[in-house]
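We were asked to recover a plausible sequence for a given structure. The inputs and outputs are reproduced exactly as logged, with field labels preserved.

PROBLEM: sequence recovery
POSITIONS: 286
GIVEN STRUCTURE:
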């Protein structure tokens, strides 16, 4: 195979040099590998140029959800199969796809023949592959990105002050094409998948290939309900979260509120328009 690998040198706490060595170990003499390291500046344009200049069979991505989203955007309509090498702090997408946790195994899956097509959500012109939201979680991510922490423990430690300064609830107007809802919520999310990278199952019936996404309206900060999200199969109270499956949605807030896409803080915005892009990506899973 002609393989292109995108490595984010700063994501998560995985050692990328070791990871690259382990990838090379699994390649055969019929494989070729071109390496691209992200810099954080104009990466999408540079990746797009590389992918347009040569015909690749597989794009491996060593990074977190932010890096996967970057590569997916850089690909545009050029749908090359992607192999995920989870190397971010949270790796939400890899968890949702149930990719193996050991490097040797996830590399094998990323180079494998079994391909799963998954939907994406287009939000204000950007791709979201996993979960994006307005409110509390985006505030947490904003604080985390502004800190010197990286990795899961850093995220957990850094979350504590933000949780106590929770700025919500906010007033939202949610239009789905079928109904218009007025809700007070601490957080409104667009979810393509079941769980956050932390493992919290916030969208129990979410599927990444069903042609719809869910709008999740979190009404209050409830520790008991949050703990329930850690259990597969737990029923979440509708006083805690209201869930609506849609193909498109428009969410308006009365004032600018923190917004995040797939774990990356965007900015404070008042409105987000989202629509499903069915089977947008092809992911190698085994
Ligand atoms: N060389 C670099 N130096 C600084 N920042 C970089 C560099 N390369 C990429 N980035 C930034 O890394 C971010 C993407 O990180 P990514 O989401 O993949 O990892 P993470 O945040 O550790 O993991 P996760 O999203 O799973 O929590 C982007 O904001 C991108 O601009």
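RECOVERED SEQUENCE:
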């Amino acid at each position: 195979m002609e393989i292109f690998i995108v490595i984010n040198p700063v994501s998560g706490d995985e050692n990328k040099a070791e990871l690259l060595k382990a990838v090379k170990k699994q390649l055969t003499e019929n494989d070729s590998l071109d390496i691209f390291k992200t810099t954080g500046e104009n990466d999408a344009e540079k990746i797009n140029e590389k992918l347009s200049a040569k015909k690749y069979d597989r794009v491996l991505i060593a990074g977190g959800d932010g890096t996967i989203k970057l590569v997916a955007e850089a690909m545009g309509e050029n749908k090359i199969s992607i192999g995920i090498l989870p190397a971010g702090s949270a790796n939400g997408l890899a968890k949702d796809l149930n990719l193996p946790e050991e490097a040797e195994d996830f590399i094998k899956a990323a180079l494998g023949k079994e391909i799963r097509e998954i939907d994406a959500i287009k939000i204000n012109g950007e791709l979201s592959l996993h979960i994006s939201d307005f409110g509390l979680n985006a505030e947490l991510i904003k604080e985390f990105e502004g800190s010197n922490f990286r990795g899961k423990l850093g995220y957990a430690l850094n979350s504590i002050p933000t949780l106590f300064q929770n700025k919500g609830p906010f007033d939202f107007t949610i239009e789905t094409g079928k109904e218009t809802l007025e809700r007070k919520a601490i957080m409104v999310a667009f979810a393509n998948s079941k769980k956050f990278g932390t493992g919290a199952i916030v969208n129990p019936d979410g599927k990444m290939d069903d042609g719809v996404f869910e709008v999740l309206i979190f009404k209050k900060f409830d520790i008991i309900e949050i703990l329930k999200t850690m259990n597969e199969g737990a029923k979440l109270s509708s006083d805690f979260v209201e869930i609506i499956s849609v193909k498109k949605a428009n969410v308006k807030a009365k004032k600018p509120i923190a917004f995040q896409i797939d774990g990356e803080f965007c900015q404070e915005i008042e409105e987000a328009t989202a629509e499903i892009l069915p089977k947008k990506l092809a992911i190698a899973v085994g």
